[in-house]
Amino acid sequence: MVVFRFLDWLWLVIFIALMIVCGTLFYRLGKRSMSDFFLAGRGLPWWLPASSVYATHSATDTPMWVSGVIYQYGLRGIWYTFFSAWCAISAFASTRIFRRSLAYTQAEWQTLRFSGLGAELLRGWIAGWQVFMNMFVLGWVGIAMGKVCQFLFGWPEWLGLILFSSLCAVYVLTAGYWGVVMADFQQGVIAFSVIIIVSIWGIVAAGGPQGIMNKLESLGQSWRLNPFAFSGVTSGEFPLAWFLTMLVIALIGGFGMGTSIDWYPEAQRIQSAKTVRDASYSIWAGSALIVVRNSLWAVAILAFFSLYPNIQSTAEYEMAWYRLGFEFLPVGLVGFFFAAIVAIHLSTISTHLNLGASYATRDLYHHYFKPKASEKELVWVGRISTLILLIGSFFYGLMMQEITQWLIFAIWIMTAGIWLPSILQVIWWRFNSWGYLSSWIANLGLSWLIVWILPEFHVIPQLPDYLRFWIMMILGFLIYIPVTFLTPTEDMDRLVKYYVMSRPIGWWKPVREEAERRGLLRSNYEQREGK
Amino acid sequence: MTQSLSVVLGMSIAYFFSFLGLLLAYFSCRKKYKNKRAKK
Amino acid sequence: MGWIKKKWTAQEADRWTKEDYLTFIISPLVYFLLAIGVALSLLLLWYGWIILGASLVLLVIMVKIIDPKLKAISEDYEIKQKKYLEDLEKIARWEE
Question: Which residues of A are less than 8 Å from B19 in CB distance?
């Protein structure tokens, strides 16, 4: 348990008040229209969504996860956190394409890229999935905060979950995405400052960089300083094959939409940027900050390892970064540290409350239930959806902790099966809605087979994650490619409209030629001749 | 329960909600197309 | 960098060109070097500073390559955006 002094409580109260007031101040802007409530009126300069990308992906459980992999694997564990590098290519490829589509959500994008019943089914499918996933993330992150509060103050878990999520809901309900993004900026600044302070404090406490290196050498653990200390090509706990698979997934995935679970919150930030250029820079810069943050944490955890090298319990060493803060910061700064933890927590909660509500409002209510709804009504539906998600997350976080554990693994494997189709839908004109929908459904069946049934009955051995990824990708390919060719091409009118608007990268020649034939685009020849 | 079974069960729960969304889309489309045909 | 195009017409900028492909290569490289460079610099290793410096130089080069093109795309697209938003609402309301 941590003892708070007057100054600590003061920091905490000031910061929480600032966060809520800062968000709520934008009430008038948030209530103007659905576009304001979910996209801040599509008018933000790049640095605001960038700070939101960074703040959203710094949750209470993120330092625990980074601590776990670095303590276990040394500096090479940093590559576990490198999945965020999908934004390196996405910022200049899929981000540009998606921003030009103007879709509120990824579900809506399906009805711009595809046509007919298939497109609508995909929209419903992705919207349903996203409403659930956001509630799941809210429960999962919320209960992590409950555990932190239990560790610090001895509170029951439900108190930390309900108290901080409810505080956050105040500004999300009133100001919508305006509140989210403005509070995220403030929270991002606080969180980044504290990450720097605590990490450097930890490094100094461990004797500085030289002290850490000397200690690791005396322990015979100098390999921990090498980010490329692979255990073999395919063997050991950290094989090169895993590293290369991770690089392929992350980098090539940047050409697709939905190749990473993080695409969905990013998609909202992309559309909230005021221009295509702002959208690109916001995604690039937000993720660059995440890369820098992970490296700061990594060195701090190496410092922790040099101080406490013999911890065996995962639950214990996952608290490494928190322990550096609470054990080594001076009196008075502990409250500042906790305020930053609250900031980290609120930024994630606010995003998922608003994002889940956007799918419920724009895709499910507006498009399917009441297409004629007024802007005022839609803003209210947004608020009610936010409230439902909030209450759902309480039940979810408290009652279904074990399922939450299952889903964390499930997300990874789920992304594996739809990774390639999520790229194909962007880069290949002939890939159709039935192909994409079949890839999602095939993914479920294949996961049951590859992950559980076949290994359980000893038909195949338990496979490492990276092998599962490749096998599921190949088997899925054998299903959705025939489905694509056996079902009709998308309506050419829709494809031309989408092409002219979004200018996708990849294999779109027949669509481009049709657009030129209709006089909607100038051909290469006309451009060269200056016609 | 093994971790493998947990993974596929967790995934199936998420898919259940997707399926509900898909059903909503299907019935909504059917209604819209019927109305369009009736107007014609 | 005379071979990098600085002035773009809207039609030229809408096509995927060598400037985009170069950015696809440089951008992940910046992330990669940034990840290693920050960590090793914090450990005060001399090669960490070199890697970090290289990532920042590459970042500047990347912006110089892609920024003129992104500006041209954005300016042109903003003019068309209003009409596209109207179309989007029509699809949402089943009026298309």
Answer: 125, 128
- At the second CATH level, the architecture of A6-24+42-399 is Up-down Bundle (1.20)
Q: What's the token pair of residue A511?
A: 């669509």
Which chain C residue has the Cα nearest residue A361?
C92
| A522 at C interface, C-beta within 8 A | yes
What pLDDT does residue A508 have? Answer: 97
Handedness of CA A356, A357, A361, A362 (dihedral sign): negative
Q: How many domains does chain C have?
A: 1
A210 shares contact with chain C (CB less than 8 Å) = yes
Kindly identify which residue of chain A lies nearest to residue C19, measuring between CA atoms.
Answer: A92
State the residue range of the domain holding C30. 17-92
pLDDT digits (tens, 9 = 90+) for A217-269: 999 999 999 999 998 888 888 899 889 988 988 899 999 999 988 999 999 99
Number of H-type helices and E-type strands within chain C:
3, 0
Strands (E), A300-361: none
Using DSSP, state whether A507 is helix, strand or coil: strand
Q: What are the domain boundaries of chain A?
A: 6-24+42-399
Task: Tell which of B16, B20, B24, B33 to mutate to test the A interface (max A CBs under 10 Å).
Answer: B24
Domain-wise residue ranges, chain B: 1-40
Can you list the residues of chain A whose pLDDT is less than 70?
Answer: 1, 400-414, 523-531
Smallest Cα distance from C72 to chain A, Å: 9
Best interface-test mutation with C: which of A34, A82, A92, A365 has the largest number of C CBs within 10 A? A92
3-state secondary structure A204-271: HHCCHHHHHHHHHHHCCCHHHHCCCCCCCCCCCCCCHHHHHHHHHHHHHHHHCCCCCCCHHHHHHHHH
C84 within domain boundaries: yes
Interface of B with A in 1-40 (CB under 8 A): 2-15, 17-26, 28-29
pLDDT by 10s per residue, chain B, length 40:
666 776 677 778 778 899 999 999 999 999 888 888 887 7
* Nearest chain B alpha carbon to A414: B11
Please give, rounded to a whole number of angstroms, the shortest distance from the CA of A296 to a CA of chain C: 6
* Cα→Cα distances A34→A148, B10, B25, Å: 35, 33, 21
Asked if C39 contacts A227 with a C-beta cutoff of 8 angstroms, the reply is yes
Which among C20, C77, C95 is the nearest to A92, CB-wise? C20
State the ipTM, two decimals: 0.96
